Amino acid sequence: MTYTTNPNLNGFDKKATKLVKDTLKMGWVAKRGKKSHMVLQAPDGKTMATVQPNLEAARLYDQAAAPIEAWRSKNSVEVKEEDGKFICGLCGHETDNRMSMLGHTTSRHSEPRVCPVCKRKLSTPSAYGQHLKTHRDILNPPPEPEPEPEPEPAVEEQAVESISTEIEVIEADEIAKRRAKYASMSTSKLVEEMLKMSELLGEAASRLSHYEEKNKLIDEVLKM
Ligand SMILES: [Zn+2]
Ligand SMILES: [Zn+2]
Fold first, then answer.
1. Ligand with minimal distance to 128 CA
2. Distance 71 CA to ligand 2 centre (A)
3. pLDDT of residue 202
4. Distance (Å, rounded) from C-alpha 111 to C-alpha 173?
5. How far is the CA of 128 from the centre of ligand 2 (A)?
6. For ligand 1, a single-atom ion, which residues have Cβ within 5 Å?
7. 3-state secondary structure of 59
8. Which of 34, 64, 67, 196 could form a disulfide with 51 if both were Cys (CB 3.0 to 4.6 A apart)?
9. How far is the CA of 40 from the centre of ligand 2 (A)?
10. Residues 125 and 104 sit within 8 Å (Cβ to Cβ)
């Protein structure tokens, strides 16, 4: 297992995830340890930190963050700004250009950065960043494919649903046909038809003695 710039952070809580991501932004690289912890290596190739997946406990967080903080303070140089001039907080070097001051502090006052893959030394963060890109395949492998989603357990339910929808469609169709049939009748013919139907209904209702009969009646009504 080699170091990468996009380690798998599955199972890491918020605090642990943020700590790891912050170090990655500073050029650190990371790999998962055997016990699900994260091993981090600073750009100097020497400073190491171990981050456990759960850092909600303050003590664990401080423990994990200590080497990272130490490295950060050693690698950040205070720059004073006076009358449009930038003054190096470590050696007093002056320049009126912010970028050239950044070049000064990183080249003079930060340790060389060591490539975690080929161990080559790079003198500035930007050269280090550029160099890491040459190892893109190793340092930034494509994310692992997402596991196949579980098959949906509701297949039967879906089938039932589609069948009942079909019945609804057929019923609506039937009703529409019957409506059209009645609409085409003359009023007297329609009244005649209705009387016939109510007669049938009355007859059926008179036979209605128990629950099963009721269902038969409903069936007959549906057939009308
Ligand atoms: Zn300086
Ligand atoms: Zn390299």
1. 2
2. 21
3. 67
4. 82
5. 9
6. 88, 90-91, 93
7. helix
8. 64
9. 17
10. no
Q: What's the gap in Å between 118 CA and the centre of ligand 2?
A: 4
d(CA 173, ligand 1 centre) in Å: 87
Which segments in the chain show pLDDT lower than 70?
1, 143-147, 149-171, 200-214, 217, 221, 224
Q: How far is the CA of 131 from the centre of ligand 2 (A)?
A: 6
DSSP structure string for 84-105: TEEEETTT--EES-HHHHHHHH
Q: Which helix (H) or strand (E) holds 49?
A: strand 48-51
Query: How many whole angstroms separate alpha carbon 17 and alpha carbon 155?
Result: 38
Whether the Cβ atoms of residue 205 and residue 218 lie closer than 8 Å to each other: no
**What pLDDT score was predicted for residue 160?**
58
Dihedral angle, C-alpha 59, 64, 66, 70, nearest 10 °? -170
* Ligand index nearest the alpha carbon of residue 135: 2
Q: Are 107 and 124 in contact (CB under 8 A)?
A: yes
Question: Which bound ligand lies closest to the C-alpha atom of 138?
Answer: 2
**Distance in Å, CA 74 to ligand 1 centroid:** 13
User: How many whole angstroms separate alpha carbon 94 and alpha carbon 76?
Assistant: 17
Taking the C-alpha atoms of residue 88 and residue 111, their distance in angstroms, rounded to an integer, is 16
8-state DSSP, 177? H
